[in-house]
Amino acid sequence: MTRRQKRTLWRIVTTAALLVVLQVLPVEGWARFLCYLAPYFLIGWDILWKALRGIVRGQLFDENFLMAVATVGAFALAVYSGSGDYLEAIAVMLFYQIGEWFQSCAVGRSRRDISQLMDIRPDYANVEREGKLHRVDPEEVPVGAAIVVQPGERVPLDGVVTEGRSTLNTAALTGESLPREVDAGDQVVSGCVNLTGVLRVQTTKAFGESTVSRILDLVENAASRKSRSEDFISKFARYYTPAVCAAALALFLLPPLARMALGLAGEWSVWLYRALTFLVVSCPCALVVSIPLSFFAGLGGASREGVLIKGSNYLETLSKVSTVVFDKTGTLTLGDFAVTGVHHSPFTDAQVIEYAALAECASSHPISKSLQKACGAQLDRDRVRDIRDVSGQGVTATVDGHAVAVGNGELMEALGVAYTPCSGVGTIVHVAVDGAYAGHILIADQIKPGAKKALADLRAAGVDRTVMLTGDNSAVAQAVAGELGLDQVYSDLLPEDKVRQVEDLLARQRPGKKLAFVGDGVNDAPVLSRADVGVAMGALGSDAAIEAADVVLMDDDPGKLAQAIRLSKKCLGIVYQNIAFALGVKALCLVLGAAGVANMWLAIFADVGVMVLAVLNAIRCLNAPK
Amino acid sequence: MKKTYPIEVDCAACALKMERAAGETEGVAAAGVNFMAQKMTVEFAEGSEPGETMKRVLKACRKVEPDCSIDF
User: Fold this and answer.
1) Is A532 annotated in the active site?
2) By the CB < 8 Å criterion, does B55 face chain A?
3) What is the dihedral of CA A343, A346, A349, A351, to 10 degrees?
4) I want to staple A1 with a disulfide (CB 3.0 to 4.6 A). Which of A5, A12, A106, A577 is the partner?
5) Beta carbons of B4 and A284 less than 8 Å apart
6) CATH topology (fold) of A306-334+447-567
7) pLDDT per residue over A246-263, tens digit each?
8) Which of B12, B34, B63 sits opposite A224 (nearest CB)?
9) First and final CA of chain A: distance in angstroms?
10) The listed CATH number (3.30.70.100, 3.40.50.720, 3.65.10.10, 3.10.310.70) that belongs to domain B10-66
11) CATH classification (class only), A344-444
12) Is A286 within 8 Å of chain B by CB?
């Protein structure tokens, strides 16, 4: 509790005690009035003061003003009617303060809890100078510096392990509880916790560019993109209070005037009391507090699961996703291509692979990487000249003075080389050397272990269409889609085709339903931004993906998407519950108040009670449904 | 230019009031208050000086919510 919260608590307790004493104290008349004035000012002085300031500055219609008018009015009414029932006015103020106090404590607490959840900021880095370790601010460590990470410490900066071996806990980043083994030569990502051994790390990025800073930046800015529900609430709040005031004024004036016109008694005090009851329920606090809290908790809960959502608006969109489009490579399949065979070649297998690998040596495409891996030896780039990338077809280059072309059938046709089609399932890379066909290399990708379950989970989470886009040939695409049970497959797509295909699918969406595109963040930034929600997977260490996507899955488990959708649905469900519940109860109070059934006690209980329940309900967003 | 400042504000309705007040301040193109994160994001208008503008923003916010504070 902060100091102000403690002070308010004291005021609440003292006021309540005073009221109990006053109930048994036999004072009457003016003495009674003065006795009751003391607890009233004790509990309400700040509200009265703020209301006064508001009036002076022309800031009418805020909740302080309304509470002040309602309670002063109730007091005046008690004096006027001579009933001596001052308790009501004080009770309204007391419960209002209890409500505010509870809200401030609950919100402050969950705010801290959630912030702590996302707190992966490293406090220091150990730099070795003259054989001694010095603790320095991570921001002061330059790129290329040697740092030491001891067991139990957080890796402060991205880097490469130069010495040592350990296991890292990546849970804070990925939600994955299984520790990751690292050895000399491996990349380490800032934000992980070193568990077992001492690591010497050479930094590859400055603190500002390291993973941990980027993620923190993203998380901190997440809630600034507001969802439609939040916008609705802030607009609603702007009109609700003045509207209730106008209604209260009308309720005070119109019925008595009408009655007088009909020749009946005006009953001014009855209608004044009912109008004051109106003012008590005029605070939109339950909604204004609980809706942003729901989203904040939802974003926090998601980040605990290793899903970073860049804003409440995306959380909202995610809950309406009915179509999920996957880019095959790296999302449903491992993207870890392996050469499975070399066919129809006049050269030895190793020779063909070496030619292909050299020609592709400048590319970071998974296919090129698998060729380089299959080749084994370190590639001497000086042997390659004139590398030309033919988009969607392959590459041509000069290797050791031979013209080498590596790519698909289209490339061979374009070069006028007769090629032999392959019967195997996989990506087929044709190779031509000096204009003559040199056989083809079969490269196959593997389906991720969790992919099948992930798709089943998506269906269970309400996704009714799953689509796969791939640049691979249709044989590969069909084989993968068949095994995983996808609804639609589009194969042989160039990167620009993927954008067009997604636009096509978007145009065919049912209204109100959204489309999510899932990619691995490599080469699919345009598609990520075109979809309603772009989801990048396996983003740990990939800056491009973190930039381009709206939702970032920190590890490469596609099952996280279904989890994120379930969480978003739960969160939005809670938001709608709160909106319906709060508005319903307030409307009921207004009607009952106008009819004279509800008194001020009921009104203030409803107002505070709704807020407490709505806040407690909102905090449930933090826990992802299992 | 866009900058984010830590703020202190007690209630969500007050945060909304601050957001509106800050947004209407001279030199501010757009302002957003995130009550949960206790942060204010201010987008400054072309050619306005952040330090001076923030002084005006604080004054405007104090007017609607006397208890608030902005750290700049």
Assistant:
1) no
2) no
3) -140
4) A5
5) no
6) Rossmann fold (3.40.50)
7) 888 898 899 889 988 888
8) B34
9) 32
10) 3.30.70.100
11) alpha beta
12) no
